[in-house]
Every structure is written in structure tokens, then in C-alpha cells.
Design a protein that fits this description.
Number of strands of chain A: 10
Number of helices of chain B: 5
Structural class of chain A: mainly beta
Strand content of chain B: 5-15%
Number of strands of chain B: 4
Shape of chain A: globular
Distance between the termini of chain B: 38 Å
Strand content of chain A: over 45%
Distance between the termini of chain A: 11 Å
Largest interface: A-B, 36 and 34 residues
Largest sheet of chain B: 3 strands, antiparallel
Helix content of chain B: 40-55%
Number of domains of chain B: 2
Oligomer: heterodimer
Order of helices and strands of chain B: HHHHEEHEE
Structural class of chain B: alpha+beta
Order of helices and strands of chain A: EEEEHEEEEHEE
Largest sheet of chain A: 7 strands, mixed
Number of helices of chain A: 2
Radius of gyration of chain A: 15 Å
Chain lengths: ~130, ~160
Amino acid sequence: MIAYDIRHVPPAAVVQVMIASVVHEHRRARVSALLDTGSDVTAIPRTLVERLQLYPISHLEIEGLAAITTSVFSYAVQLSVAGLVISRLEVVLTGLDFVVLGRDVLNHLYVLLNGPELTFELATTAFVAGA
Amino acid sequence: MQITFSQPRSETQIQQIVEALETLPSVKVTEVHDFVRFLQGSYAVSETAGAGYNRNEQDTQDPLAAIFMEERPAPPLAPAEFEREMVAFQRLESALEAQYGGRVVAIHGGEVVAVGDDKMAVLDTVLASLGPVPCYIDRVAPGVPRRVRVPSAWIAR
């Protein structure tokens, strides 16, 4: 069980992920990531572009909470989380200092939220009932 | 609309753009506006006008006003080579539709260098055959670029 991050108010499910360049895999960064089942796509901190020397590969139209659409560049990265390695993932950038882990990643994982106890589990294999 | 420019060179370029726009049908002006909005999003200029541009309230209602905005001094997140490939994709789109409709293509040097059914698979093909070169990868289909939703909100503290 992983404790919710109480720096988020209300507390949130946050996990550590590894983001790496698809060209130079030694360029990597360990970053906190907020589990966000509302996001279609994963976003990484803008600061990683320079740090990992990422280059855009395409672009996407992003529709936010205000239903306003913005065109943004997308980047390819390698993402590792909870034993899952996605060798090529199209991501967008965020001004936030943490990764926003969208359903493009979460749909590869089993996620069990225990809100009342502020804990969660994240795994690549199904949870065993009663375990 | 009142506009002042900090650099004569910009004024010339922008005047040429305006003159060219006036020769286009309205549907093409809309396409140009969409592209300008794309560039604004890419360079995060939509909330801050360039130093040489004086906006007034009327301008915010004018779809052409954005064209006169100058780039912020912040470094671009996309190298010029990538932008050239992206523009090439847009220029070639109708021709690509005939040959690669529904498929994903990678554009490098203004030409198709890889084709596939998935952006990341096409990226792999490019990396394997050409190495880490600037390229633009997208699906040749209506409704491209793909629209994704990120509706979450965070309270600033």
C-alpha cells in the first residue's frame, strides 16, 4: 500500500515514475506523478525538455477544464512506473512540477484506491482478493 | 485596431502577411488563424502580447489581431527543423491523403520517410533507419491533430 501524498489538498495518489529520453536512455529523471484518470494523455514537466534533451515529434489538440482547445507539441519518452515500462509514450508538457499520469498509462495497470484510509495500490498484475 | 511595431523588419513582414491574407477566401483566412493559434499555444504567447504590440479590447475580438503578435523572448520549445517538417506535412496533406489516408507518416526533409499505423512505431522506424533526426509524425486523416482531454483542475496554493 502506498500512502496518499498529503501535500495535495485533498490528498492524492502520487507515485514515483522514471522518465527517459527515447534516444539517450541514460538521460533520465525520477519524478512524482499524480494519478489522473480524467486525463486522456500523460503530461510531463516542461523543465524535462532541456534536462533530457527531448524533441517534439508531433502535436495534439488539448481540451482543458474550460473546454478551450489549445494546440501543443507532443514528445516521445520512455516511462517506467510500478514495474511497467512503456518504451515509447507520446506525452505533452505541463507547467506543473509533477507528472500527470493519464489513462494512456493507467490503463496498463491495476489501481486500487482506498480513499478512506488514504492509501492506494498500483501493480501490473491483478490484486488477489483478500490478500 | 492600432498597432505599433518595435522593429521595421517585422512591420514589413507583417504587412506582407496582411496583404496576402486579403487575397485569400475567408475559409483560408480561418486556416491561417488556426495555425497562428497553434503557434501561440506552442510558444505560450496567447496570454502575453509582444513588447512592440499594443492591444486594445477590440483586438481581442478580432481574429486577425493574433497575427500581429510578436514572439516572446522565451526560447522556443521546438527547433526550427521540426517546424519546417510540420509545415511540410500540412502543405502535403492533400497529396498524402491520396496515398497514405488513415495511416501515420513521418516527414523528414520535406518528404515521407516512414509509414505505419502507430505514431510510436513510426518513430521507431525513423530512429532505426535515420537516427535521431528532426521529423514530424502524424496520422493522415481528417480531425488531425488528435484532440485529447485533460479536464483536471488544481487549486493554486
